[in-house]
Amino acid sequence: MNPHSLAYSKEVATAYARITTEELPADVFIQDFLKQHGKNAHILDFGCGDGRLFSLFTKYGATRITGIDPSSAMIAHAHELNRTSDSVTAEVQTAATLPYGDATFDCIVSNFALHYVKDTGATLKELYRVLKPGGTLVAVFGDAQFTDRHDALRDTPLPLIFKNEMQVMTLAKDAERVREEAQSAGFTIEAFHRLPQVVSIATVPATHVERENVTIGIARIVARKA
């Protein structure tokens, strides 16, 4: 089973939208970032999924929000979730070449998206290009340092979403290497944290949603463009 295709199927996108209405562990990182950088900002949400963070951006004062994701199913949910907002644009885009001019965005948020990207170095260069001078990127992603259990579980007969999360975390990046790639792209690293995080992962049987606590590796990078 290909985790990339699975993650972006219509079935998974629908289930994902059902289970992401609550605050997730990484959200505190995003909120801390937005308190400093969100006001009056044009924010790029790189890997926006179903657009559930858009309301958080608005809460902290963002005036314009652009969300991109390679999944048309996820973007359809983002449109539905934010259909009354004139300040939000959600588009199907891949990481390879972003269709925006240089220095377009005040800040960039990437929440659990970089571990899907095959070439993080090239992606970070693109993010650097579209970020305004003085702008800041926050990226939260799976850290390979803490993913042993997920390697063991990825081929077990788990329900769809739970199995998908296990496979996605086996794509987790070496956070130290991502930090170096961000520096090579031109960023100045302002904060770098890596830690194990206990999260409640959802399984989605046919009739109800169940949850199980598991430990995953989470890395956070805050990086500024000079």
- Tell me, briefly, the overall form: globular
The succession of helices and strands, N to C, reads: HHHEHEHEEHEHHHEE
Side by side, the strands of the main sheet go: 3-2-1-4-5-7-6
In the CATH hierarchy, what is the class? Answer: Alpha Beta
Flag low-confidence runs.
1-8, 150-170, 203-208
Strand count: 7
Tell me what the structure shows.
The protein has 226 residues and is α/β, with parallel strands linked by helices. It has 9 helices and 7 strands. It has a 7-stranded mixed sheet, sandwiched between helices. 42% of the residues are buried.
Brief characterization of the structure:
The chain has 226 residues and is an alpha/beta fold.
Write the layout of secondary structure elements.
Elements: H1 3-7, H2 10-19, H3 27-37, E1 42-46, H4 54-59, E2 64-69, H5 72-81, E3 88-92, E4 105-111, H6 120-130, E5 131-142, H7 148-153, H8 160-169, H9 175-185, E6 188-203, E7 210-224
Parallel strand pairs: 1-2, 1-4, 2-3, 4-5
Antiparallel strand pairs: 5-7, 6-7
Throw out a few tags for this protein.
about 230 residues, alpha/beta, Rossmann fold, seven-stranded mixed β-sheet, globular, disordered N terminus
